[in-house]
Amino acid sequence: MSLVKGYEKDKSNAIDRIMATVLGKPTDRIPIFPMIDSLCSKLLNLSIKKYYSSAKSVIEGQSKLQELLNLDYVSNFYYLAIESEIFGMNTLFFEGGSPNTGEPIAKTIDFFTNNEIPTLNEHPAYQKTITTTKGLTELYKGKKPILSVQTGPFSFPSLLMGASAWFESILINPDKIQSVLDFSLKFGEQWAKEHIEAGADILVLVDGLATATSIPREMFEELVIPLYQRITRDLKVPIVFYTAGGNILPFADLFNKTGVIGTFPSANDDLEELKKKSEGKYTLFGNVNNLELGDWTLDFMEHIIRETIKIGKPNGRYVLATQHMIPHNVSIEKIGEFISLALKYAYF
């Protein structure tokens, strides 16, 4: 039973809607993307660890979201740490939050030149994600955009060595950084290719360390833009730059150079300024505060949604979205109310 009211005005399906949006073409309304991950475990009455233990559970979780919310997307996302499991690392599971990486396996950046990328298909964790993408394809291909989510190439080294060590390495050993990024890019492309072949429509790269919250503009231009130019060229699939809540306004005039179709600004980013600086060259997914949403009254939530859409909606290439994943303790009913309120202002 759907928790959302207002979909009766829809004239397009979700996949056609998002593709029209990112191409700057007319459609019935703006897409609505409340970003949801581990909350699905609650819908199936499973612990987070149990929920992520099988493709069957994740597919059922996505299906339950569609039953309750009729979302404008489905996602194969598990947790970013699953990629580190390929290299032998352990994942730490917490009730009420997303899993995280355990003890880093890469003590120095020499790890990336001294080791080969494991054969992904031989690892059950990777096979689990592929099975999920295939299952979602069987259910939703041609109806909902199927998002394949993974770590972005600039942030990937931090999964294996920690963020502080990765940034220290960039500063101390700048001559070795390109080889690390080559390793990262190779891994990311290998991870993505089979998901694309399995039916994924859009690749979402989570690259929070490549935002203005973490690096200066010069580093973005020197290291990040070339990485994305390579991956968008090699994979030839629509790619969204997911910032995980990182600020992007100082880079807003640069994203069109990366080849991505869109990016998620932070709730701290000025959406009006982003619209100006992006010049309609890529789609903005944003930028509702995911952390505060659970505490909002309905009246205040409607105010935020109305004002955000008022800025983002004109001239298209805009998706109403939370800046990052909605916390585990926010009720599914609250998310349903969010979507219902958004639909009041979403139609063109």
Neighbour order of strands in the largest sheet: 1-10-9-8-7-6-5-2
H/E series: HEHHHEHEEHHEHHHEHEEHEHEH
Distance between the termini: 27 Å
**Low-pLDDT stretches:** none
For the residues shown, what is the average pLDDT? Answer: 97
Would you write up a description of this structure?
This protein is an alpha/beta fold and about 350 residues long. The chain has one domain (about 5-345): Alpha-Beta Barrel (TIM Barrel), CATH 3.20.20. Helices cover about 45% and strands about 10% of the residues. The protein contains 14 helices and ten strands. Strand 6, helix 11 and strand 7 (about 240) form a beta-alpha-beta unit. It is globular. The mean pLDDT is about 95.
Topology:
Blueprint: H1 14-22, E1 32-33, H2 39-43, H3 48-51, H4 55-69, E2 74-75, H5 82-85, E3 91-92, E4 100-101, H6 111-114, H7 124-140, E5 146-151, H8 156-161, H9 163-172, H10 177-198, E6 202-206, H11 217-235, E7 239-242, E8 262-263, H12 271-278, E9 283-288, H13 298-312, E10 318-322, H14 332-346
Parallel strand pairs: 1-10, 2-5, 5-6, 6-7, 7-8, 8-9, 9-10
Antiparallel strand pairs: 3-4
Helix pairs in contact: 4-7, 7-10, 10-11, 13-14
